[in-house]
Amino acid sequence: MTMGAAVRSPAIEVPVAAGRGAPPPGASVASGVPGGALTASDLAEILSRFNVASEALQRTHETLQGEVSRLQEELREANEELERSRRLAALGQMAAGIAHEVRNPLASIALDARLLERESAGKADAARAACRIGESVRGLNHVVTDVLCFAREMSPRLERVDVGELFECVEQECGPLACAAGVSIEKSSGVDGRLWCDADLARRAIVNLVRNAVEAMGEAPGGMLDRMVVRLEHGTEGRGGRRVGVVRIVDSGPGIGQRVIERMFNPFFTTRAAGTGLGLAIVHRIMDAHAGRVEAWNNADRSTESGVGATFELVFPEPGARGRSRRAPMETSR
């Protein structure tokens, strides 16, 4: 019996008892063949095709359920991201107002400290006090600068940026700090190519990550690290059907604690006594402004060659691929 024959002629002329596979006693059932009774093989074929169709329908139902669940999860993440952005915007506005109010008095204190230091010639105690005041003011100015950077509106001016030149700028800016901490800054061999980004914002993001790595290694217990290195890497990859530029900052430090991973990129969270808790929050904002993302992991978790330290990865979408990428779990100052 063919499917075509079943469609052209009635398959069953007398109702079949529900829940049973055979007609009631004495009932006459017509097959697809004119004048012929429905045979056992005909019934078997009908049931087989019904089972196939039922299984296909079940698979389709499960696929649709999975798709609905995925879309619901994406919607939940998008709503969480929107709410986070609103909270950060409100926090940024408040912090910017406070920072502006603090900056002017700090300028006056810094000027008075310099005058006091000059007038304290020959008075060691007074000179030391003036020097401490000056250092404290510089530290507070650094905090104010970070707060204003975090709070300001970021509108990237996107262009093709030479990665080699970008890494050179980062190395020059972070070199003194790294040298003082005994950390080497290296670039992966053959670093070239261009990155679609805002040069100043990308530099700031990479500098913040390098500084974070250097400071983490500098605070590690003596003798814990055999070699202290921060390596800069760049590449272009295809992800999710689009091209992206990738920058990685790989260190050989102590890695990232679980408590820190869970609170990563939260503004004003830090485990460092002298930290502002804004360095990585600024990185996150910069990558948001690029419609990209930042991700971090311990190298031991990814079975890398070294197996020590941590990696921060910045993902910059290429032109024409500025759709919002899903944000990875967040990371903050170690």
Describe this structure in words.
The model is unreliable at 1-22, 24-31 and 322-334 (pLDDT under 50). By secondary structure, the protein is an alpha+beta fold. The chain has helices at residues 3-8, 40-119, 124-151, 163-181, 199-218, 258-262, 279-289, and strands spanning 159-162, 184-187, 194-197, 229-239, 242-251, 293-298, 310-317. The chain is elongated, with a radius of gyration of 33 Å. 51% of the residues lie in helices and 14% in strands. Among the domains are: 86-151; 160-317, Histidine kinase-like ATPase, C-terminal domain (Heat Shock Protein 90). Strand 4 (229-239) and strand 5 (242-251) form a beta hairpin. Strands 2-4-5-7-6 form a five-stranded mixed beta sheet. Strands 1-3 form a two-stranded antiparallel sheet.
